[in-house]
Amino acid sequence: MFEIGYGARPYRLIAMINLGIDSFGVDLDAPLLSFRIGDFLQIYRKNGGERLLKSLLRFLIGDIAETRQIRRMIEGSGGQFHIPRERFLVGDAAEVLAHVDGVDVFLSEDVFEHIPRKFLGLVVARMATILPPHGIAIIRPNVITGISGGHRVEWFQANIGKRWCAGWSEPWGHLRAPCLTGDTYLNKLTRADYRSLFEEHFTILHEQEKLPGLGSSYLTDAIAHELARFSRDELFSNQVLFVLGRKRPLTASEVF
Ligand SMILES: C[S@@+](CC[C@H](N)C(=O)[O-])C[C@H]1O[C@@H](n2cnc3c(N)ncnc32)[C@H](O)[C@@H]1O
Fold first, then answer.
1. Ligand 1 test: best mutation among 6, 11, 26, 27, most atoms within 8 Å of CB?
2. What's the predicted TM-score (pTM) here?
3. I need a labelling partner for 13 at 20 to 30 A (CA). Which of 34, 90, 163, 184 fits?
């Protein structure tokens, strides 16, 4: 199993490894896996001082407790908790995948929307050449056209409607005024764009948004009219799960 963009809190990958699944992954940013001077230096060298400070704060505030919880779960089910650092590759997926082989399952959550289009094309093409015929890719980007697609925290499911962030930005504000995205790079691929990109190399076996109808009570007639260029299926996208299988060869009846 190979995870693309395991993130600053790589619990999914840690869990896979500790469940005995032969897993590894890559992220642009070096993770802070434990309190070791070497890890701090690696983050500082690769990602600079600001990222180091953020990682340090997050580590002290949450990561220690969360890692302890995972350790307890693994050890409670008879496993031996370990974090093999060599399985956490650091680099750009578009480059690193050129040197990867022998993967049966690709996994990626909340990452593809952050990879520039031309590199994403390389990533998807490379995944297709690496995967064997029985392999699958489970990819879940947060799609730009959904209410949370602009990555504004006030429109994430957990915060929608909370008084502290009500009125911070208009619903689907990032589609109506494109500068209104959160503080992160977004490639702005729509759900239809992902379908086309994936279908160049894969068959889409399954597609499902995580939170059907997220934001529906905010889609007034006026907003629906303003965003009429987007289908409902786009506007109610959020984290959309795409399960991809290798394209099967055409049968004789399909060819002729
Ligand atoms: C929003 S986080 C999601 C992290 C994790 N998948 C999760 O579910 O918590 C996006 C991650 O993608 C990583 N990322 C973005 N572009 C990447 C690239 N080209 N190659 C590898 N990782 C990338 C970022 O460094 C970041 O850790």
1. 27
2. 0.90
3. 184
155-171 pLDDT per residue, tens: 999 998 887 776 788 99
Residue 174 has pLDDT above 80, yes or no: yes
* Alpha carbon of 251 to ligand 1 centroid (Å): 38
Quote the number of domains for the chain: 1
**Domain assignment present for 19:** no
HSE on the CB side for 252, CA within 13 Å?
0
Q: In the predicted model, what is the mean pLDDT of the chain?
A: 91
H helices of 19-116, where? Answer: 37-58, 64-76, 93-96
**Share in percent of the chain as helix, strand, coil (round to 5):** 45, 15, 40
- CATH of residue 205's domain is 3.40.50
Read off the tokens for 169.
């930005």
| 163 in a structural domain | yes
Q: Hey, how many other C-beta atoms are within 10 angstroms of the C-beta on 15?
A: 15
State which residues form the domain around 148.
Answer: 92-255
Mutate to test the pocket of ligand 1, among 114, 153, 181, 184 (most ligand atoms within 8 A of CB): 114
Any atom of ligand 1 within 6 Å of the Cβ of 27: yes
Q: Is residue 80 domain-resident?
A: no
Whether the CB of 54 sits within 6 Å of ligand 1 = no
* 62-120 pLDDT tens trace: 778 888 888 999 899 888 899 999 999 999 999 999 999 999 999 999 999 999 999 99
Please name the residue whose Cα sits nearest to atom 8 of ligand 1: 109
Would you say residue 207 lies in a domain?
yes
Atom of ligand 1 nearest to the CA of 94: 19
Residue among 121, 106, 34 at smallest CA distance from 71: 34
